[in-house]
Amino acid sequence: MRKYFVTATMVLFTAVSSLAQSTSGVEMADELRSSGKIYVVVAVITIILLALIGYLFSIDRKVKKLEKKN
Fold first, then answer.
1. Is 53 contained in some domain?
2. Which keywords does this Swiss-Prot/TrEMBL entry list (predicted)?
3. Distance separating alpha carbons of residues 52 and 11, to the nearest angstrom
4. Structural domain for 47, as ranges
5. Is the pLDDT reported for residue 54 higher than 90?
6. What does pTM read for this prediction?
7. Is residue 2 one of the residues assigned to a domain?
């Protein structure tokens, strides 16, 4: 019974959220795209993600070295 309730609730929230969305475009994204600044935003996000991935790999290597010592 609980399974059906959760499923019905999820379907209801999905339907409500799809109806709540407006058809107009995103003004900020359109303005950034028209002025060419969207590429700067994409570049900054890419650099941040690459730095985080590199940091995670370096931590992983350090943890593996510590595990091998013990």
1. yes
2. Membrane, Signal, Transmembrane, Transmembrane helix
3. 36
4. 34-70
5. yes
6. 0.55
7. no
